[in-house]
Design brief:
alpha+beta; seven-stranded mixed sheet; 8 helices
């Protein structure tokens, strides 16, 4: 197995070839993939015609796959429980309408976020398999949050360093209506307080750690001020020089680092089938301040 790595964007993103996810990989191949992942933050494995079971097995080379805790909306596969369904088609092949609750929740992915940040040990990374892709949009965009942190103006840096933001899953479950309900008390749900600026153990670099679909409060700030700060940080981060837009091809598999990137998907025609299966790698330790 000869692995090649080709950068796709100056900020982040690289194409990795020479890997067959249907086959076990040896320690040298694993290390080569890990090195590319840590350097480029998002790696693309083209033309990987894998089953869900093979997807999960490959994920295990890099950590334990998460079992998504929410079962009410059928976003977790009934067939392979480690698979999260980022799809507008159910497992029986039925095209789902935008008005259905699962699609309303998935629509939050159009906002900048990082996966499972609300957990006490947030996710290390995710792997997304594009089984049926959209051509009317559905581009997945990624931002290098190392670079964003490095370039923060002093006015923003002073507000984030030493503070924590709350990451609350109930923000996601009510995302499409939360602006109307912002002041309404929500029932307790999965939430955690995470430092804004975190150091990634493998690289030793600092990253700005935000997830706008989950962030609903900032330590030591009034609600309105916290909301403005989250919006300002998100707007600052969403610049082309920090961003890799991935245009999908069938059976691309993307692997990204949730600790130092955020991502968002562009809208697409809801009548066009889009079938994407994701695994999420469980965090190994709590996120700590840099």
């Amino acid at each position: 197995m000869t692995i090649t790595v080709k950068s796709r964007h100056p900020a982040l993103g690289a194409e990795v070839r020479g890997v067959d996810m249907r086959q076990p990989i040896d320690s040298a191949a694993r290390q080569a993939i890990l090195d590319a992942w840590m350097k480029h933050l998002v790696v693309v494995f083209p033309d990987q015609r894998i089953s869900d079971a093979e997807h999960v097995a490959f994920t295990r080379q890099f950590g334990e796959p998460e079992i998504f805790h929410q079962t009410s909306l059928h976003l977790r596969s009934d067939r392979v429980r480690e698979i999260f369904l980022v799809s507008n088609v159910d497992e029986d092949g039925r095209l789902l309408q935008p008005s259905e609750p699962s699609q309303k929740q998935l629509s939050s992915a159009r906002q900048w976020h990082t996966d499972s940040s609300y957990r006490p040990t947030p996710s290390v990374g995710s792997l997304l398999h594009g089984i049926e892709i959209s051509r009317t949009g559905g581009i997945t965009q990624f931002i290098n949050m190392y670079m964003v942190y490095d370039d923060l103006p002093d006015s923003l840096r002073r507000q984030v360093e030493g503070r924590k933001a709350r990451h609350d899953f109930s923000m996601l479950s009510g995302w499409w209506a939360h602006r109307r309900r912002r002041r309404k008390k929500r029932r307790p749900c999965r939430r955690s307080g995470i430092p804004w600026c975190v150091a990634i153990p493998v690289t030793g670099r600092k990253s700005l750690y935000i997830s706008s679909i989950y962030n609903d409060a900032v330590e030591g700030m009034a609600d309105d001020a916290a909301r403005r700060l989250i919006e300002e940080l998100t707007e600052f981060a969403a610049r082309p020089e920090y961003m890799y837009p991935h245009v999908w091809e069938p059976h691309d598999v993307l692997m990204w680092d949730n600790r130092c990137t955020v991502h968002a998907v562009t809208p697409h025609d809801p009548d066009e089938r889009r079938v994407m299966h994701r695994t999420t790698i469980v965090g190994r330790e709590p996120v700590t301040a840099g």
